[in-house]
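Just scan my protein:

——
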Amino acid sequence: MRKVIIGAALCIAALSACSEKAQQETSEAGSAVASDAATAGDRAAAATGEATRDVGDAASRTGARVEGAADRTGAAINNGADRAADTTGAALQNTGAAIRG
């Protein structure tokens, strides 16, 4: 009887040791999965931030190009209007000179 009790106690001790080891391994695996998930989240956040900066930079470059094109268009219109005014003024002077003369 004593041998059976000692054997049972040893089996229980062995099972509890296995159970503790299994719990430890499960805990370590859970920690590894949580760490991997946190790393993946950090990488996704960094990639999103980088993409946002890239879009912002592209929008700024596009805005600068549109502004430059608008400036060139405005200058061309002004130059054309100035040339038209000069031509009209010259034509009026020539007409006035022709009438007087």
